[in-house]
Amino acid sequence: MAGLAPRVHYLAGFSCPAGGLTAGGPRVLHLGAEVFLAAGRELVYVYDREARQLTAVYRFPGQVWHLEALALRRALLVLCARRGIYCLSLDQARRSVSQSDGDEDSEAASPVTPVDPDTCVLPDATLCAFTVLGDLLIALAQGPAQWKVQLFECPSPGADPGPRGQIGEVELSTHTPPAGSPGKSQAPHFRPVLCCVSLPSSRARHSPPQGPRAFTLEGPLFGLLFGADAAVLESPVILCGLPDGQLCSVVLKTLVTSRSAPGDPKALVRILHHLEEPVAFIGALRTEPSAEGPEDADLDCLVALGHHGRTLAIKASWDEAGSLVPELREYCLPGPVLCAACSGDSHVYHSTPSGLCVVDLARGGPPEDPVQSDGPGGLPPLLCPTSLGVCSVVTLSVSSRSPAGGTELLALSAKGRLMTCCLDLSREPAQPTRVTAADTGRKIKDLLCGISTVSERVSSLKKAVDQRNRALTCLNEAMNVSCALLASREGARPVSCTTTTAWSRRELQDVLTATCLLENSSGFRLDRGWALCVQVLPGSHGSDSGSAVTYTVPVDQLGPGDRREVTLLLGPGADGALDLPVTVSCALFLSLREVVGGALAPTDPFKDPSLDGCPPDVLPEQGGICLPLSEHTVDMLQGLRFPGLAAPPVQAPAPCHPPGDPVGTFLETCWRPGSEPVRPESLRAKYLPPSVAAIRASAELLRAALGDSYSGVSLCCATLQWLLAQNAAVDAVRARALTSVQAVAPDGTEIRLIVHEVAVADLCPAGPVQAVEIQVESSSLANMCRAHHAVIGRMQRMVVEQAARGSSPPDLRVQYLHQIQANHETLLREVQALRDRLCTEDEASSQATAERLLQVYQQLRSPRLLLL
Amino acid sequence: MSHQTPLGSSVPQASCLDLWREKNDQLVRQAKVAQDLGLSPRRQQLAQDALEGLRGLLHSLQGLPAAVLVLPLELTVICNFITLRASLAQGFTEDQAQDIQRGLERVLETQKQVGPRLECGLRGLWNSILHASSLLPELLPALHHLAGLQAALWLSTDHLGDLTLLLQTLNGSQNGSSEDLLLHLKTWSPPAKESDDPLTLQDAQGLRDVLLTAFAYRQGLQELIVGNLPRALSSLHEAASGLCPRPVLVQVYTALGTCLRKMGNPQRALLYLIAALKGGLICGPPLLEASRLYQQLGNTAAELESLELLVEALSVTPSSEVPHFLIEVELLLPQPDPASPLHCGTLSQVKHLLASRCLQTGRTEDAVEHYLDLLALLLDGWEPKFSPPPSPRGPCMPEIFLEAAAALIQAGQAQDALTICEELLSRTSSLLPKMPWLWKDARKGTKESPHCPPWVSATYLLQGQAWVQLGDPKQAISEFSRCLELLFRYIPKDKEQGPASNCEQGCMSDVALQQLRAAALISRGLEWVASGQDTKALQDFLLSVQVCPGNGDASFHLLQTLRRLDRRDEATALWRRLEAQTKLPQENATWSLPLYLETCLSWIRPPDRETLLEDFRTSLLEPCD
Predict the structure, then answer these.
(1) Could you read off the pLDDT of A730-779 as tens digits, one per residue?
(2) For this UniProt entry, what's an example GO CC term (chain B) (predicted)?
(3) Does the interface predicted TM-score (ipTM) exceed 0.85?
(4) Bridge partners, residue B275, by sequence
(5) Contact B91/A144, CB-based, under 8 Å?
(6) Which CATH architecture has domain B206-318?
């Protein structure tokens, strides 16, 4: 399709907002030689193509959203954001603006005329789109919950600016109003599009004057889409494409309402289709050659383009029995669609950030393919966009002014350049012409213009290539890191994460923090896109209790040897409770969308377009690579504080009492001058015996497990140090060679850990076994249980490790073990029975059951078992 | 900037308060000036500016911690803001509820009630504020005003339970049993405004009156639709006795007329309708109601006259009233519903009603005139100046054409009827299946038949009738045959489409379809009879009796033909059946057929069924004697 290469003529440049123009805002349209242009700001330019100069510039009080030129009335209608519709007289414009010199970039030279507020003919802040059909102005307003189609008499410039009689109104389907600020209604990101279609003028005796956005559809398609009533009434129809993807139609002749009788949406509005993405364009085409010649043919195909490229085409056809049936096809064109236009033949022009493309709905496939799936007249099964090599066009308008018979497009690029693209689709052979001086001048200008277009295109392509390169580099690095991490399952990992805990004071409250240290000892960089995910899960390994909280911290540029620290608050929360143990698991996450998404968004125009079409959808929203690093359980032993071990004075700040105990505080302050402070704890200590649990392990086992690192101290000291190894206070314990410590749990109750040696007599036939008993004591049962659980956890791990090393236990008296096991089993059964009873009983008796349950639990914890 | 004003020092704050207050008064005055501008476009702009000013003022007031001293002003500004916003947008939205909630939370802040129970929503907020022991008396007037707006919001969104609770709390009545909202509204007396209070767009007292009328009217209308007439009457009386703008009063009087008509008091109903007509610019609903009343009384002349007046009334575009920047009764009324008795439709709907009533009551000349008027109205021009929303209940456009054609044939203008039918077919030609009657030869083998809506067949039937009248039996018979061919091929579309599918899509009730087939068969049979081909006629009549057993006319035509052909045994059997049928009570009047079909059936009815039966009996008895 080399013949499609357009001849591009540069007309003028206009200033545009920083960062270029975006789709939706800018508009360009022409009326004879005059071009009207809004570049997404408050200004509307009038440019004369014959004189090649700006004739007027108007400043509006807000962003200009839409333009329509009324040829007969010589007026320009302008929709200004959140203001309403203004009506300017074009003749007046001519007069009011003084002639400026012929310089093309003369914007600065031409005076800017602020529009008179009195020319606002339809003040309505909710209007989002409008179109004109003869004497009628059709507007789409955004109501509080619905879109409303409103019908007004068309205003004319200079007329009495009285109120416009509203002729009709009907509500369209619901839409989700913009969330957020309840005050000012936000500018919608996508605006609806409007379009008028009518029956052929040969049949409709009172046909409306054709507007720029009005199409004439052939009878069968019209009747099929809008029903027999519309066909009998020969009424024009308004098509609305809404940002939610709905495509609906309203028969204009039926839209007469009054305040006492508003239109019934069920009777008036027909929903034709749902595109499921914002509708960007509605147009009509002639797909079949017609006997009447290409100019007068009625259009036989309705198309709608969604913002992401989904395209709908509807035609009328007859089925086997001879009944009229709609033929509906959806295509996927490369998106995002910035703007689109139809030229009256079978071509649809649409612009994406990577270029302007044309698709032919008559042919669709390659022309040499003679077999069409649906036979003659059917829509092509696949559309092949052909790039025209003009990039970043944000608004298009088709003008048939081209003398050669081809199509001429009026386009505005993202950088504010107005140009015409002549497409000679018929491709007549170039004829040698005599070159005159004027021609040469023009030719040079064309060439220069072509160069500028090409350079604009080159810069955009270059940007895309850079983006892809960067993405590829990132992916390569990510691949390396993943391989390194997955290869070294055991041993030192190239990227590691260690977790430590510490108490600190924050905002009058002591808090337990976990610090995750991410260390990159590999030879690769962790670059853009990587994030450290830390999941804090209540409960220990694997136990699935409660809900997890995940923190995601972006790892920004972690080179080889670098380390990064992340500190998290574990608790206590607002209620003063800290539920230990918690599991902190760390993982590295690479978001593919972040790395690759940007590079895939604009599609490559040189790639085979038929393979294109869905790249942004390839990546799921959450797609990425997740590499688990470490898992760490923070238990009670790590959460203990030791105010008694004040040797390092700043090590542990004096524990603050939990904030939620005002009575305690009160009593304390009351009794301070007296002899003895009466705090609930001390009262409890006085009258309630502390809960005790113990665990025994054979000295041999412990010695083997602790190994050499604790040589030189007594076994009890070593055991205590081992238990508190991950606590910050371990140094003080070591320094003092303690065998028992007084600690404070996170909620402020006290816990004692006592380690002493015992001899167990009955177990072994060889004689008493030396053992170490670890005793946990606390006035709070819950804390005692947590601490006991933590100790048992460590013991279990130790035993498993020792068993792996293959140390053999000494001879045991098996019967003794059996007895212990039997005892425990009966106790467990009783627990089960008591628990069942607890569920069914009433208040009073459940009290007793609960007490018994407690006793049984305490018996279960009694240190009868010995770990060997 | 006011934000830096230390709260503790009273002097600068007092001056600030004055400043804010002055700003509020100025904005209210600006809105009132805009109100008086009439329908100028400046008005909207000025009001919009005032709204933005109020919004800004509210922002600066709410930027500071809530203070009891400023709170009455703040609440007043909220009230003005909501009033202006709702009246500009002509309705309440979720935003207004949020504004109220914000105001209430500010009040709670000063009451030191920490942690408002948000889960209870607005109702919970009102409850905790009004039940608080620390409610300051200086806040009461503004709170009552805000409560009035809350009541309006709840009334317009039909949260009547919440509304009742709020009013109970405001009135201080503890008995939760009383559910009568009207009584609560009546007993609610918001504190009067003091002269030195900040200006308001609408005071609480006025708001209460509006609420009272709106609620009474809503309730009355609802009871009327439900059919609870005595309660409807009392509610509507209440609405009429209150403060009522004239357009609303017209509606209330019309509703009273409807109610009294249904209660069997036509004279009193008429009095109310006359009062409504005197009342104002909008005279559509009372005229339509009057026509229904006269129809019930059997006074056709007066009925049609009312309809004609209604057509005239609707031809004049009513000058729209300028809405005030207040919460008005209209704002609180439900959206006009086409099913409501007060809905008078558009000009073309009424014109169609008038024309069809004329046709039904036998005023054929008038019917023709009105139908032609209606078609001209609908088809001329392309602007939607006077066009019908084809409501699902009414006939679709093709049926209006058919009714017009039937009226023309009835009036003896067969040629014009043909023109109308041709026009209809030409306008829909592109929609029809491609040459359905040639289809059978062209593609044999396929079982499927093209879908063609029944009104196309009906058009051929009427064309045939027109040819009958023009005395061209050949043409007539060919039209009837074409009609029958389409009809017997017609397969009713699956009924799952439900009631929403209208005639336009080609759905017709089974009874109507049977009658249409019978009508076409009888019509063709009669033409065969006229041309002396009795055996062909016999076939058609036999078929019509089979197709539509409920159609008695077919049997009579069959009987006559059998008699003519001298097939005595069959004739006697048929006669006995007919005799038995005539003794049974007639029930075929309950069918609702399209008007054009009913008219058409009336043409092919045998003129004197009784004499025919009598003749037959005597002829049957003769040989026995």
Answers:
(1) 777 777 777 788 888 777 778 888 888 887 776 666 677 778 888 888 87
(2) Fanconi anaemia nuclear complex
(3) no
(4) none
(5) yes
(6) Alpha Horseshoe (1.25)
